[in-house]
From TrEMBL:
Organism: Actinomadura rubrisoli
Cofactor(s) this protein cannot do without: Mg(2+); Mn(2+)
Highest taxon of the lineage: Bacteria
GO molecular function terms attached to this record: coenzyme A diphosphatase activity; metal ion binding
Protein name, per record: CoA pyrophosphatase
InterPro entries, sorted: CoAse, Nudix_hydrolase, NUDIX_hydrolase-like_dom_sf, NUDIX_hydrolase_CS, NUDIX_hydrolase_dom
Entry annotated with the keyword Hydrolase: yes
Family, per entry: Belongs to the Nudix hydrolase family.
Keyword ATP-binding: no
Length: 214
């Protein structure tokens, strides 16, 4: 297996990333949250593109209105009747930030994340060679950001903050004054571990801050 931290591939080359990611996701047995009364489902996209010459994942800061106002997130949203998580995630990627992706761009998926907001969130991993211009929807997106695969894979990116109840809160430290918590932080951490580092892990029990319930 290729060492993801050695040489130019796959953290520094999108084509190499695609090959490694597809293989690791194909062998990863993802978990689907079973249906239950009141459960709502959503799909989000971990979209890898080349930005400033390096492979990066797209994150958004949600508009300062409505659900999840001002929170860090991945492009995505709730499933419409009859939609699969993949279809919903790709539709929302286009609607929210103007990136068009099809089934051939999907590399696989990670575990459903049971958010305290009542959603089971399915993360879909996508790679786009020529994404085109970003066209964020002002009704849904305040700003669009990129984090390099090397930043995600760096040893000092995950930080575990002890809690008074004895647990630990994950912070994905993506830059100065830029920390992302679960649910989004948990999905980024699983992407880092499973896809970038080849270490199968689970995240369903990660602590979620109280403000993510809304």
């Amino acid at each position: 297996m290729t060492d993801p931290l050695a040489g130019p591939a796959p953290l520094d080359d999108l084509a190499a990333f695609r090959e490694v990611a597809a293989g690791r996701l194909a062998s990863f047995e993802h978990i689907t949250v079973p249906g239950s009364p009141g459960l709502r489902r959503a799909g989000v996209v971990l979209c890898a593109v080349e930005h400033d010459g390096v492979p990066s994942v797209v994150l958004i800061r949600r508009a300062y209105r409505g659900r999840n106002a001002g929170q860090w997130g991945l492009p995505g949203g709730r499933l419409e009747p009859g939609e699969t998580p993949e279809a919903a995630a790709l539709r929302e990627l286009d609607e929210e930030i103007g990136l068009a992706a099809g089934p051939a761009d999907v590399l696989g998926r990670l575990d459903d994340f049971p958010a305290t907001s009542g959603f089971a969130i399915t993360p879909i991993v996508v790679a786009l060679d020529e994404p085109g211009a970003l066209l964020p929807s002002p009704d849904e997106v305040h700003s669009v950001h990129h984090v390099s695969l090397r930043r995600l894979a760096a040893d000092d990116t995950p930080r575990w903050v002890p809690q008074t109840d004895g647990g630990s809160l994950l912070q994905m430290r993506l830059g100065p004054d830029w920390a992302v918590h679960a649910p989004t932080g948990a999905m980024l951490w699983q992407f880092r571990e499973v896809v970038l580092l080849g270490r199968p892990v689970r995240v369903a029990d990660f602590v979620q801050p109280d403000w993510t319930r809304h």
